[in-house]
Amino acid sequence: MLQRSFYERPVIQVARELIGCYLVREIDGETLVGKIVETEAYAGPLDRAAHSYSNRPTERTKAMFQEAGHAYIYEMHTHALLNVVTGRVGQPHGVLIRAVEPIAGLEVMKQNRATVKRQIDWTNGPGKLTKAFHITKALYAHPLNERPLYIEEGEKGVKIARSPRVGIANSGRAADYPWRFFERGNPYVSTFRK
Description:
The chain is built from four helices and nine strands. It is α+β, with helices and mostly antiparallel strands and 194 residues long. It has helices at 4-7, 11-17, 106-112, 126-132; strands spanning 22-27, 30-42, 71-76, 79-86, 93-104, 145-146, 149-152, 160-163, 180-183. It is globular, with a radius of gyration of 15 Å. It has one domain (4-183): 3-methyladenine DNA Glycosylase, Chain A (Roll). The longest helix has 7 residues, at 11-17. The termini are far apart.
């Protein structure tokens, strides 16, 4: 498992280096594994697109002000979205896990995504992957170096590309920050829309 020191570094660096790592979810005696292929960095009080832009903890964002390596999970529409808290305590930076490539536990993922026909669509977006891995708000503030949800060191030498983040609107210049990282050529990377 990646230790807290991995997450205590600058958010852009963590977002980039999570590409190729493995997201692991243990549930009901099964182990689900996905290679992280897409992330986005959110730089707290400096970033108009971040939930913690005001730099004040709220009931929704309090996990972002905790120690690095905790899960910040929020709901958007019907989706739970998984973020990793980075930096120092009180420095509310986070990395959104946008997409993973399924590696193990495929039968469970298939059951969790029973209404989705193509495997490629199980985990190629932030709300899709949390459904496939059964990641809910019950795991809010969970330390990501402990079971049942954690991240492990992954593949080395993954070819990484970067772009502006997806779906950022009404955020001024923040919409153009090239803080989205993804594995070049991986089919599980979400479709980019401006």
